[in-house]
Amino acid sequence: MNAVAAAPVDVKLMNMTATVLFLAFVVAGTAATARWLARLPAFDIKGIAVSGDVSHNNVLNLRANVAPRLSGTFFSIDLRQVRAAFETVPWVRHAVVRREFPNRLQVVLQEHQAVAYWGSDGELRLINSYGEVFEANVGDIDQETLPRLNGPEGQGVEVLAMYRLLVPLFAQLELPVDAVELSGGGSWRARLDSGAIIELGRGGAVEVTARVSRFLKTLTQVTSRYARRASALESADLRHENGYAIRLRGVSTAVAVAPKK
Fold first, then answer.
1. Entry pTM
2. 85-88, long-range: CB within 8 Å, 24+ apart, which pairs?
């Protein structure tokens, strides 16, 4: 029986080359077809459905403002660009964007939930429940009783956390906290709803709340000596190492001087 002759090397190379060329042609053809299909008018973005938190933004206005900034078809549009466009709109904190075949987009929005004002009167902004400072029309806020927070740029989380710690402490004596501020040097200050200023001193949450707790435990004892309630507090300085200094409404520490005869 005759053995089957092995194919020459040049024939094998020709066969391999032909296979590679054929595969390359198929891939190129498929890519070209895909590009052609992607450019068809049928896949142009025809609509954007917006859902989620839209309390401060009209859906029609959202679409009208964002749509002109977008480009591409269903297949080529950059979803990151779409998300970024929506997140530049005031009050929008986060946007989730999905394609909906064949020519629509689904956008789900999460709005900022304002919990306090941030900054000074000249540049008042808002801070959300995550401690993130954001720009928006403060006139859109229905809650006129929002507290005022302030501090160095990027310290919103820390200041909001301190405010949340202080509120229940002062609430024990029915003293609502209206404002909390962190100075550039790291010193804390609180303002009560009555207008009283409380110098809290430097340090982290543990140190500051410990000083406040000690202060509040003895405040009523001190005010009662002068027949006053805790609400008569005008100012307090807790930065003293072994005590604190307070000023009460209607109580004077001035010494009367007898008139000269």
1. 0.79
2. 86/62
Q: pLDDT tens, 99-158?
A: 999 899 999 999 999 999 999 877 889 999 999 999 988 878 766 789 999 999 999 999
Q: Specify the CATH number of the domain 44-111.
A: 3.10.20.310
Selection from 132, 174, 123 nearest residue 157 by Cα = 132
- Alpha carbon distance 157, 149 (integer Å): 11
**CA neighbor of 216 nearest in space, from 183, 192, 182, 252:** 192
CATH among 2.40.50.140, 3.50.50.60, 3.40.50.11690, 3.40.50.1580 for 114-248: 3.40.50.11690
pLDDT, tens only, 167-209 = 999 999 999 999 999 999 999 999 999 999 999 999 999 999 9
Domain boundaries, the chain: 44-111, 114-248
